[in-house]
Amino acid sequence: xxxxxxxxxxxxxxxxxxxxxxxxxxxxxxxxxxxxxxxxxxxxxxxxxxxxxxxxxxxxxxxxxxxxxxxxxxxxxxxxxxxxxxxxxxxxxxxxxxxxxxxxxxxxxxxxxxxxxxxxxxxxxxxxxxxxxxxxxxxxxxxxxxxxxxxxxxxxxxxxxxxxxxxxxxxxxxxxxxxxxxxxxxxxxxxxxxxxxxxxxxxxxxxxxxxxxxxxxxxxxxxxxxxxxxxxxxxxxxxxxxxxxxxxxxxxxxxxxxxxxxxxxxxxxxxxxxxxxxxxx
Length: 281
Prior knowledge:
- 76% of the residues lie in helices and 1% in strands.
- By secondary structure, the chain is mainly alpha-helical.
């Protein structure tokens, strides 16, 4: 049992070290700063600028969080503070079902519904002639995918807040909304941040659904209606097909390492926030 525990604990370090050593060939010929701050992606010429992919990942993740964040927070407040208990009992399996749906299903749904909607309605509404395969499509699909994860954590966080705080606030004459806004949300703030942090981790590393709707064009997107090319899509689309090009394998491993480090940092920050919340149990 102890050996199994040690293996599980060591897995993230093994993954990180493995990706680093596979990336060293590229890092010998290029500085990390140049690789992260340039957008020139021409593998045949030995140019591997990751800026396009990093910005696309940030764009898609930001849009997903902007859409999913308010929806999840308000839904949680309604479920834990206003709705009857049977509503929450119904919602739990629904949330679990949404979390268990394979990402490729979300991708197909994005192609059938989100992409045509952006092409026919959202784009023309803003005076843009677009194909629909865009950063916005990736963000919308991703927001649906991260909602179950954020909701589950937020519900748990709000349920850990002592009921005495709410009762004390109401007894002093505060309305229910004032109690939620100034007492409960403030108390749950570290947990809310951790929930959004874990949602960002999930969104940043999501691959299949995003690459199906985002367009996959190696050009820095200037707006939400333009196509993008996130880091996970770069790895999934190219690994195994273009490895005969010198340093291409090492470049994809560096892309994976960047992804790994970013997700790891978000997870660590979120876990620290959750630990703070659990102290109030």
